[in-house]
Request: fold
Amino acid sequence: MLGCLVPVAGATAGGAARSAAGGGAPTCGPSTAARNQPTGGNTLPPAAPAYFAADFPVVRDSRLHLPVGGFGGLRRHAPLHHTPVVFVHGNQADAQNWLAPMLQFQRLAGYSMQEMYAISYNGLGNFYAGEPSTAPTLPDQDYFQQNPDGFGNGGHGAANDDEVPDLCRFVEAVQAYTGSRHVDIVAHSLGVTIARKLMVDYPALARDVTAFVAVAGANHGTSVCRGLDTSYYGCNEIAPGTAWLKALNRHGESPAPTRWMTVYDGASGDPFFDPPYDEASPHLAGALNRTYAGQYHNDLRVEPTEVDDYLAFLLRVGQAEGSTQRERHIARTLSQRHPDGRNGELCGIKKLTGC
Reply:
């Protein structure tokens, strides 16, 4: 039976979380952001809504001093049939960005909300920042109706190093809550570099990431930060050619044992990576790099063709115990037929969707 999900309550998450899941250290530390990082766009957002299971640990945002929002969980140590997935959104958005992919994961491959977790790492997002070109799904509409303030929200910039501690604690909380040492990560845009930096800062935690899907990430810089590296919050990290990116990539662009996949436009459809300099920025050496020419930045995250492909990747190589014959069959079907799984309601978030 599906549990009723309510705003976060219960125990707090900390360094003991990985120990509870059998992973041991690390304990998540403070932000390593430069003290003189730019301040443009660095305004504090409203709190994000939380639709976690009632017994999911509270994870506090180290910058906003509020509980993080998001989705995930049914009940502590409920049965798992897939390696849990942690979804990480992009700049000025929030966990709502992952409702459509979660719906597709559930309808096409049978993932439950015990196996899917999305964090709002910078408060309530601006709906337009993550808006794809297609119509919103039913769970998206539910979220918009319950959280209309996102439409009047001008957007609040985020930066990588400031968000790494919150994502670290969130991953540890998921490990402890599910009892699974291993997780998969699916990240979009700024979420890609936040999660990659997490794995650099915490190599023991990195070894617990079975597979990583990087959708339209600024792995070698974003066009929108060109000329803003000294003025806009976070651009000192992800403007093309920064010392921050050089240090990040010096650690290896797709280090083992994690299996890596990138999803990006690669041509001229994504304004965050304009040719002739930045169109290949999301590429990671050693990863399975998949391009979708002409696709817009946010469509790459939610469109059925792309979701089917990265879901198939997780079914094949993202299962910590090895993929089953059924998972391999589903992966083949997804890759060959590219079904659309965006119809219907996302079950397991009763407070949001009623299902």
User: Anything to note?
Assistant: The two ends are 11 Å apart (CA to CA). The beta strands are 50-52, 69-72, 85-88, 116-120, 183-188, 209-215, 259-264, 288-291. The chain has one domain: 16-31+42-353.
